[in-house]
Amino acid sequence: MRITTAAQAAQRDANAVGAGIDSWSLMLAAGNAAAAFVLDLVRPFEFRVVSVIAGPGNNGGDAYVVAAALLNAGETVVLAASGEPCTDDAKRAKARYEQARVIHGPAPDVMATSETYQFFCVDGLLGTGQHGALRASERQYAEGISASQLHGTVVIALDVPTGLNATTGEIAEGAVRADHTLAFGTLKRAHVLQRAQCGSITVLDIGLGEHADLDDGAWILADVTMLAPRVPHLAWNVHKGTRGKLSLFGGASGMAGAIALASNAALRSGVGMLHGHVQAESLTALQIAAPQALAHDWHDSSPHDAVAIGPGLGRSVESRQVLDEVLSRVMPDIALLLDADALTLIGTDTNRLRALSILRWVVCTPHVGELARLLGVEVADSLEGRIVQAAGFAKQSGTTVLLKGAPTVIVGSHGETPLIVARGNAALATGGSGDMLTGIIGTLLAQGAKPLDAAAVGAWVHGRAAEIAVQRAGSIRGVTLTDVLHAMPAAWADLAGPRASSNVVGELPAMPSSH
Fold it and tell me: Which residues, other chains included, contact 473 with Cβ-Cβ below 8 Å and sequence gap of 6+?
């Protein structure tokens, strides 16, 4: 699924219209799909009211279609318009709503009853064309929506919440913070840049067809639909020797926990044989923490289909010696993953990485600070800037780069469109999280997955396991990486699970509170 700027989204609509798809049919599809979502949301409540806020543009037109569909479904609807429609489609949508209002009559005065109502609000004030500060009248509506939330109103935004720049993610003063956001046709950049502002995000099919996937440089969301077919298949008669052999190097004295986390993540990802290479002082700790792993000294060798080096490796003279030994003896066609201290020890020597990548797949997994050090530059202050840095490093080094963060970015060395993995939560913002990711990706490489696939699948499972762990606990606070490890089998099951309904083409969950 593509992640577009406002301009890229508009171009998709224009291309669809140019190919003979009527713009009115796109608005109808968007509004009716949104109404179906709202109906599913409200129907569990016996007494409910839906207020709809319609702006003058096409986002307001979508809102009129939603209101008409809800009226025709028997819902109690109260509509407020910030101005007269200014596009032909929006005018047509208003007429559709007014016709439905005539048929169904005025909204009842629910305040005159003794029943307790649940209120919902559809934010159709401003869409993807908004930018800059809100006008006074727009801000008045937006602040009214926000005030109603304090009394329990559930807010559903159409495409983007009012006050959120769809391209940059800039949040205007007084902006709406939605509980649910219904994206039309594609995700917008703001959806992954400002997850908390959007609540849960559901991407609805509005009939763009092939135009939604226009290859114009728009980022790609690595989601279940894309990734499920890229998980290496485990045949019914597989055995430990054919299920992937991974050699992990790390675990300097005092840092055995890092390679223990990587080892347990590899085991929970289905590795066939795991060889953990640690400094001699860490051998016992590794055997206790990951008894299914075979523990070796740093300077030993082991059979493998992939090698991962970095978790807890340290930066000592012996650490550098071990890195040099491993890189000198790893055979051609053996996939290699470099993380954490391994990247720090390599430093800015991209020529060394390029030489390594000539004969094998190499994956580097820096965080933003490590990437900046590898390039000898300052940390980029925007996601777009970080993507540019990651792509530049991938091209210089000939490697696949996974840039850790929220969201995670994955780029190849041949100019591939960036992949974005927008799963996970603050439970992963702790020491050892990246070590877990190394174990997951290392396993996938050992099982024959291509670098981009291994990185994307690994990041998705890593993030989804954190989401499940928080769901089970009911809070982020107190969730440990052990909890995330225990959630990994369920995350793998989700990757192979059922798909969304026919008019839903993608989903991102709401970000949980940090409390």
Answer: 479, 483
